[in-house]
Amino acid sequence: MAKEEPKKQPVAQPRKKGGKFKLILGMILVCLAMPFMLPTILLLAAGLVPTYVSYGTDKDPEKSGAISVFAMNIAGITPFLIDLWAKGQTLSNAFRILSDTNSWLVILGASAIGQLIIYAVPQAIAAMSLGHSETRIRALRKNLELLKESWGPEVTNVRSVEPISKE
Length: 167
Fold this sequence. Notes:
By secondary structure, the chain is an all-alpha fold. It is 73% helix and 0% strand.
């Protein structure tokens, strides 16, 4: 008789902890705060439009680009929120801020800086990494030459080191 292989139990997927609960709780809190903070919510809803667009167009599953735009976007809105709170949370103050072109320049300019971070930082890191690698290759070639001088050519490989980049 052949031995029967034990049946493998299906591996349970890890559950998200509180995904829908957190969303529902957040919506309830916003609805409860709406009558008391309507001007603030209006200013945030209008000012965070670049974040909404970035979140909708970001193809990264972690949404790192949207997070970068959000951080800079919220930094651009913060002075106007403080101004709204200092002068009183009224709809007229909120509409005054939203109708001012300079406030939009600051809010959208901060969002543009967040978008610039998305494009510039990876390229800068790649350039620095490439420079570091080329410096390391030069140092290794120099050490190889020193080893040839000290111990003779028989300690080296029969093939020469292939150049990675054209010099």
